[in-house]
Amino acid sequence: MLKYIIFFFHYLFILYVLYPFSPYNSIVALLVYISWIYNKNYCIISQIEYKYYNETCILTTKLKPISKYEKYLLLFSQFIKLIFLVHNTLMLQGHNYFQLLFYYYQ
User: Fold this and answer.
1) What long-range pairs does 60-69 form, CB within 8 A, spacing at least 24?
2) What are the backbone angles phi and psi of residue 34, rounded to the nearest 5°?
3) What is the value of pTM for the model shown?
4) pLDDT truncated to tens, each residue of the chain (106 aa)?
5) What are the backbone angles phi and psi of residue 53, rounded to the nearest 5°?
6) 59 conformational bin, left if phi > 0, alpha if psi -120 to 50, beta if neither
């Protein structure tokens, strides 16, 4: 039972890191990406799961390295975040804060 709770929190962590509209996940995403680089393309949490349960959150019995597509997905989510940050910053330069709400909802 504890195994599936840990897997569930691993899934939540993955969703949090990939969600591009969270204001505080960029540092976490950077740390995750750096950990992949220094850990030879393996996820630390998956390695811990495999060590204690002989299974990972993907429900495989073999530990697999992070693929390039998973890395691209992480970078793409942060790129989307950057695009929205630049867009919102440019919008705030031309309007005051109260007019910005009415700009989107007219």
Assistant:
1) 65/40, 65/41, 66/36, 66/41, 66/42
2) -65, -40
3) 0.79
4) 898 999 999 999 999 999 988 888 899 999 999 999 999 999 999 999 999 999 988 888 889 999 999 999 999 999 999 888 887 777 766 655 555 555 555 5
5) -120, -5
6) left
